[in-house]
Amino acid sequence: MPEAYDTTAILARLDAIERTLGSGTLQTPALAAPYLTPASDGIVAAVRQQFVPAVDVRHFGVTLTALDQRAPEAVARANTEALGSALEWSARTGGAVHLPSGSLDLWGVVELPRGASIRGAGKFSSRIRQLCQPASDAEPFVDVFAAPAVSGGIGGNGYNIVADLTIDGGWNLRNHSRDGNGNWHYDSARMTQRGLVFATPAGGPLDAAVRDAGSDAHGRIENVCFTNIAGYGFQMSGRGENFARGVEIRKTGKSAFLIQSPDCFLSDLTCYLSGDSGVEIRAGAGNLRWTNSKVWFCGMQRAVQGIGAAIHLPDPGTETIMMNNISTQDSWGPGLQLNGNVGIVFSGDIDEAGGGRLEQQGFGWRGTRSLPRAFIRAPGTLRRARITAQIKGGSRLGEAARPALVDLSGSGVGGCVFRLGGSLDHVATPPVRVSTGHVNAGRYNEIWFEDRLLHGQVTAKELNTASHGVNDPVYGPSRAYRNDGRLMVRGPAGWIQQK
């Protein structure tokens, strides 16, 4: 519970709603347990009770429409204010706001205060939709749910639950029809809308001294569909230990999600139809645990050449990202584009990276391609990564457009092991692409394909060169293969040849 239960502001707002709508309106239709039924004196008496498990959002003056209908602007504006009041009540009392089946249309952003929660009747039964859209290219898109302004180091949201509903940004791809290319043709710099933002002030364990529940955010997204978002389905930043499970994200102008808060847990996600990369994992997202998910149809935008990777780690400081049982499919760019730093782990499969089906069907950047085709790209300072994947697809656009297996373009990539499988029949020749800077830096990495070492053999001279990556005291291996096929093991006094 909050340290002070002050209902003055919320009750004043609810009194105004009651005067506008009348208590009789608020009493129909009657609601079944466990949701609070309106009392005889209307909405004010209903929400004065603190110990209520859930209240139907209609108690706060919200007007719902059928899923195939659209609310007038005046109704959507009133809904925005009423939903804000409902979430304030939830944050103050700990009760949940319940959204019945139907559509709740908004006109403007709704703040999700710390501790508020909202649940629908089902992912495809209850919808919250943003109707406020830019009137011109000079106007920005409007978020659906945003974090409150941070003040005094304890603002932002946290301890939220959003579950069992659809969040619709209202973005209409058909509005982007320049140059006769139809959908997915737009200025990617304008794609700033978010369906849901979990954001808190940065902090660490010391904050636990002033927060009864500890220092982390503990936001939860469960069984939610994000769709028609001109930007990111959801964004997580600030303090961590947020959770997302059973989430579907489709038709986003930028990426399915952007995560930059630490210690988060993601599972059972399906992310598809994104304008640029499927997902973005930034430097703040250390110790991420992500399992059992699929990312596909990424890099759909036509007007600008983006990265278009299924999974993109753009920052050199990203550490300890654990991705297990993840599938990528049909990306305009690579399946994995990894800058990162240390401890990046991936296990899964990569299908049709580097264009393939997207270009064949007319999606993705339509100009001259400068991004190399590859299943996996490491253009930065990736260190001590462990990538295990089955490779599929790659031959749809002909032999000249086959993607490389791994593109080691970053001169700082070292101490990484790639264990890949599948068939090389649809992979470029040579399958491994290495930049001159990478070679000159003397980096050591291993790339295995079906128990065959494609890249990583070293010469006797390199084994005896202290500055070579094979002898790096931090990232160097404990064993290596010489270019004559001999296995060498590191000993106290140097490398020892195994018989």
Fold and architecture overview:
The protein is mainly beta. It has a nine-stranded parallel β-sheet. A six-stranded parallel β-barrel has the order 10-12-15-18-16-13. It starts with 7 loop residues before the first helix and ends with a strand. Helix 1 runs antiparallel to helix 4. Mean pLDDT is 87; it is low at 1-5, 21-42 and 205-213. It is built from seven helices and 32 strands. Strand 30 and strand 31 (487-491) form a beta hairpin. It folds into two domains: 1-107, no CATH class; 118-136 and 146-497, Pectate Lyase C-like (3 Solenoid), CATH 2.160.20.
Radius of gyration: 26 Å
**Broad structural category:** mainly beta
> How many separate domains make up the residues?
2
Q: Specify the CATH class of the largest domain.
A: Mainly Beta
Task: Round the mean pLDDT to the nearest integer and report it.
Answer: 87
Query: CATH topology of the largest domain, which one?
Result: Pectate Lyase C-like
Low-confidence blocks of residues:
1-5, 21-42, 205-213
- Percentage of residues in DSSP E strands: 25-35%
CATH architecture of the largest domain: 3 Solenoid
Report the count of strand segments. Answer: 32
